[in-house]
Structure prediction request, 384 residues.
Amino acid sequence: MELTILMPCLNEAETLGVCIDKALGFLARAGVEGEVLVADNGSSDGSQAIAEARGARVVSVAERGYGAALRGGIAGSRGRFIIMGDADDSYDFSRLEGFLSELRGGADLVMGNRFQGGIQPGAMPRLHHWLGNPLLSFIGRLFFKIRVHDFHCGLRGFNVQAVQALDLRTTGMEFASEMVVRAALEKLRVVEVPTTLAPDGRSRPPHLRTWRDGWRHLKFLLIYCPRWLFLYPGALLLALGAAVTVLLFPGTVWVGGIGFENKTFIAGCLCLLVGVQSVTFSLQVRRYASRQGYLPRHQRYATFLDNLTLERLALAALVLFAAGCGGLVWCLIGWWGAFFGSFDSPMATRLMALSITLLAAATQIFLTAFLGAIMDVGQDAAGR
Prediction:
């Protein structure tokens, strides 16, 4: 069988029938050997009977959630290709030629683009139209370097074998983002085709919840991109902290009549501390994610990440710890020279702050090294 048209369903009795009719009409008109498959997620309004009466096949998916329903439907499909879409009559299942043509041409994932095809008045809330979808799609393009301008279009087609190999795991609305992100990470061929969006035909509110599901999509994008979550902010803070501490360590720096001294120096030390923590988190998370298989091995830095052993990180922590102790000893000697009395030295204050920062950074690296070693225990056991 060439094509499965897959519809996730949870109480869609009002619109399911017309969606199935349009999909079957497309298969007949295009001469495609295919099926309409309804992945029912526990409907209580008779959607299952409607689907079977209209000529669709129904698979029941007990685990709740948009992603869970689609995963169950994908597992139960018979087609080489799948075109999936919501069963609320907002997508036109009678016009799938563009999707099927791209799939036949070798595309692994074909995304619909509602902004190119046309969004009818009232079909999409203004917040989603002008902020939510464009912003999340921009973040997705920025993080994963993929030319998809409508990350959350519910009408999309894919090669079943290619998508099953991605081992998609999410069960909620963020499944839509996971499919695109994992396809990008695995270098699958992803294309877009214009599609339309009409107001849905339901009388009940949609299952989508704007802020909850928007946050879940954003959280997913961040989790799957440790560079933007940890590495880039951490590297920026490290660079800023290093610049501030190096410039101010000799003494006050004046810029346009404004003096930057110890308070600014301490802020620079804080940037160093947070930057070290963020960068070490990034390295450990990336290493763990690639070993667990939900992120691919980094082509250029895989060996470097594999060499981030407990012993090497502990050695780096020891070097920083020794430097911090050396600074504290210097300050103690200076205080001793003042007979442990008043010791008002701006240089000593900066050195004390820097030394404490180095000690704290050493502790962070040491603890993060052990955290990485603990995460490796399960991986080593699995390997045996």
